[in-house]
Design brief:
This is RNase H type-1 domain-containing protein. It is built from five helices and seven strands, in the order ββββαβααβαβα. The protein is α/β, with parallel strands linked by helices and 178 residues long.
Length: 178
């Protein structure tokens, strides 16, 4: 039974810091990455609670694919992880506006690829989902995890040491030069 699914693409709201979800919700930030120099792609993401505490994260090596597909994979992996963890009130943020727009377009019909249909299948499950656009400077942790995915796959049940400062800085709006 489907409770509520909404794909909402918001423009930047004038803040560059990570914005926590409402009480009872978690936020997933995802990103895809493709190496300019090698035919490798990866994706990554992080799930955080209202206080910004790390719930889980992932990196995933994809092999060779397009940037668009890497972004689709990131959304699929992020939603799958949330579902597997029993999380049912999700805000998913991505800097891939084209992918978010595609997911909001019910006219895709047979034009959607396998990843599109896999994401749509997950969206139809019994949970509350909101999709939001997050500019790249509010998605730095996910971007870093996606770049890790260029060479490895991992489930991260705790925040890795190399990300602790970045997670804190992103929450405070202290964004590194990208």
């Amino acid at each position: 039974m489907q409770e509520s699914v909404a794909v909402v693409v918001f423009p930047p709201i004038g803040t560059e810091k990570w914005v926590p979800p409402d009480e009872g919700w978690v936020k997933i930030n995802v990103d895809g990455a493709v190496s300019r120099y090698e035919s490798r792609a990866g994706c990554g993401g992080v799930i955080r609670d209202r206080s910004g505490e790390w719930v889980a994260g992932f990196t995933h090596f994809l092999g060779s694919c397009s940037v668009f597909q890497a972004e689709e994979w990131a959304i699929l992996k992020g939603l799958s992880l949330a579902w597997d963890l029993g999380l049912r009130r999700i805000i998913l943020e991505s800097d891939a506006k084209e992918v978010l727009d595609m997911l909001d377009d019910d006219r895709m019909g047979s034009r959607g690829d396998l990843l599109y249909w896999s994401i749509k299948d997950l969206m139809s499950r019994g949970w509350e989902l909101k999709f939001q656009f997050a500019p790249r400077d509010r998605n730095v942790v996910a971007d870093t995890l996606a770049k890790q995915g260029l060479s490895s796959s991992a489930f991260l049940d705790t925040c890795p040491d190399y990300l602790r400062t970045l997670v804190s800085n992103e929450m405070m709006g202290l964004i590194p030069l990208l």
